Amino acid sequence: MAEKVVGYLHPADGAVYLDATAGEGGHARALLDASAPGGSVVCVDIDDQSLRTVETNLRDFGDRVKLIRANYKDIPEIARQAGVRGFDGIVLDLGFNLSQVDDAARGFSFSSDGPLDMRYDRSHGITAYEVVNTFRPDKLEDIIREYGEERHSRGVVRAIVKAREKARIECTAVLASVIAGAVHGRSRTHPATRTFQAIRIYVNDEMGNLKGFLEAVKDFLNVGGVLVIVSFHSLEDRIVKAAFRRLSTLSAPSFRILTRKPVTPDADELSVNRRARSAKLRAIERLN
Description:
By secondary structure, the protein is an alpha/beta fold. The chain has 2 domains: 2-99 and 206-286, Vaccinia Virus protein VP39 (Rossmann fold, 3-Layer(aba) Sandwich), CATH 3.40.50; 122-203, DNA polymerase, domain 1 (Orthogonal Bundle), CATH 1.10.150.170. It has helices spanning 2-9, 26-34, 48-57, 75-82, 98-102, 128-134, 137-148, 153-166, 172-180, 193-203, 206-216, 234-248, 267-272, and strands at 16-19, 40-45, 65-69, 87-93, 221-231, 255-257, 280-286. α7 packs across α10. The radius of gyration is 20 Å and the shape is globular. The two termini are 28 Å apart.
């Protein structure tokens, strides 16, 4: 939804923007093109592989691009490293980096077999393997029900526990097969989709990161600046909606919600990228 993101941010020459989840640099490139010749973009990602890709993809823009490896929730530290007090516009795209999904070694997808990892930052943190093989059944069920909104969560956990009692679940293909045996009925999506999503969200503390960012961001958006968030999960969208409502009640600083309802992809975009079908864009502007 790069075109819609740029439309809300109104890029200007000389302004400084933050792409808080840079991915492969698509939003950053659109902002750099629209803010030429002097606009700049600070590209942030927690995945060092993604930042290497961004560096390659945006090399032609020279020093108009600054790369920072960080968790987007740590926006005070990001601003410090960028050498700014605030940004003239911020985009936070909570969607998947497709290169992560397509890399079997990352363990995000059940479409190709790989180790149960699922971490965006592979330098530390709990892995999906630990969640699947060591968590108590009640904890595992809570995760799958809350973050995956999986109505078969109890049956899925029973199947996982039964399987891991025989042998550790080592890879994505085995986990997907175990889940498929527990989830019955017709669906357009793979039976393991919701459970994989839930475990990924938990492993990376995605909801906690989003809440932390939304608590801090008000102090790092310049007057007249716009924050655009693109979410892909109903829980994320509810968190963003509630946070924007809270921000709109403040008097200093004050904010104005720009999207009465979430903006969704149009037919042309969906014809090119079906994975964008669940995207919801919300935008808010700082007034003073």
